[in-house]
Design goal:
60s Ribosomal Protein L30, Chain: A; 110 residues; alpha+beta; single chain; 5 helices; four-stranded mixed sheet
């Protein structure tokens, strides 16, 4: 087992933020999901049902892995060092994190 596979979702997100490229927020995330420009998407569990459903539905249509963050939007923001709530994160480039690791996290949370 590699060191990367033992990382928690918070640690993986911090690594992606540090070394990769992301978009933050519902509007930007859904725009990128619909155009198929994301490698993965992270969605907070407590966002409004319509927003949650729209992101998950479009991610599945585009075959983009979706990670459902078990904490709330404040927790998602705090996990990446932002002092405000974040409903969703679109991962454009995962940086040093392997796409297989992201898919593994997505399969655990779906």
């Amino acid at each position: 087992m590699s060191a990367q596979s033992s990382l928690t979702i918070d640690e993986v997100l911090r690594e992606i933020i540090k070394t990769g490229k992301v978009v933050i927020g519902f509007r930007k995330t859904i725009k990128y999901v619909k155009t198929g420009r994301l490698k993965a998407v992270v969605v907070a569990r407590n966002i409004p049902r319509e927003m949650f459903s729209e992101i998950i539905y479009n991610a599945r249509l585009s075959e983009i892995p979706a990670i459902i963050y078990e904490g709330g939007s404040m927790d998602l923001g705090a996990s990446i060092g932002r002092p405000f709530p974040i409903s969703s994160i679109g991962i454009i480039d995962p940086g040093t994190v392997s796409i297989e690791r992201i898919r593994e996290l997505a399969s655990k949370t779906s």
